[in-house]
């Protein structure tokens, strides 16, 4: 029988923690971690480091790190406005006559920065005012080289396409997100158990991976910062932005749905032999997910089988060959801050780096743990140091974690989609927790007084029986 994980088991801060830089009174604290990027600096200095010049362009790692973290201190629209203003001021783009030779050195660098920004953080450009700043600054350099205007048109076209694609988010895919009660259990003629749709564990693992990668593509890197934002005490009284974490939240809902779907499929059959068959099937699916590198589906399946309504089915589990399940549980054991899982994840990440095919590049992390790691990183280090400087060293660590995730989510799924299977996974009815308990008690009678009382209460409330 599986052991039931408690909430406190799921994650602990453990040894996770970025370095804590010592504040100084100078503009820089410690050694620069990137060329021109101090471990701490004022916000104004960091913004200046972002602005390209004729003979200077910020490192790619700095651009990603600062654009990711800057939204904790300044709205993206305001940041772009300040960057454009500095460009105009430094390159004297407001003069009637421009230094064409100078602009031709500066122009490509400005367009490169705007291309990187719009590509990585397209949602920063959803406001028309932001697009206006972008058009204005490029319009000032366009007279020096007609290619700049053409490049600007291509950039905006790509941006609009990306925003349109992101607008078609995954929320609509969850047609049956709300759990149903036991009373609304669909008749056998309507509800088709998963095994009748897909009986091959490897195929189901592939389809789960297809769904995972599709959903991951919609999550922007900025959502990881925005999920844990606190109003900057040195900023204005208004928060930096409103709630912009819909895709991240939708992905967490998908994980929860998969947990409940697994539990529902196990509790649904009336005969213990069939229930045991479903459990063994999901064990094989979980193993294939592990082999693929799909740790999120793997953990959802294990969590579903560890839910109390499933784990209490002793007669059913007695018929299950549990050796493979215990191996998987060991891999995802929360002990030591998920030490075994983290080792497996590093192995998958290394395989991905040296891969020659999309199949070997797949790394889908256990998402809830990734979010909690970022949460503890955020909580463990201040955004600003006592001297008011931005703690840039913290944000380098944050960018490292988020950047790795961005690399993983961009892998193209090598498996062909089976619409009938993915549709079932998205829309099949799932029981609520009470519905699962009642189905479990109907399958295997309550064993103690606590279970008997709960069964009686559930039958009364859900089925309307006395």
TrEMBL record:
One GO biological process term: Ras protein signal transduction
Regions of compositional bias (Polar residues) in chain numbering: 1-10
GO CC terms of this entry: plasma membrane
Gene3D superfamilies: Ras guanine-nucleotide exchange factors catalytic domain, Son of sevenless (SoS) protein Chain: S domain 1
Domain Ras-GEF: 200-446
Keyword Flavoprotein: no
Segments for region (Disordered): 1-38, 443-466
PROSITE patterns referenced in this protein's UniProt entry, alphabetically: RASGEF (PS00720), RASGEF_CAT (PS50009), RASGEF_NTER (PS50212)
N-terminal Ras-GEF domain: residues covered: 34-164
Keyword terms, alphabetized: Guanine-nucleotide releasing factor
GO molecular function: guanyl-nucleotide exchange factor activity
Superkingdom of the organism of origin: Eukaryota
Protein name: RasGEF domain family member 1C
Organism, scientific name: Monodon monoceros
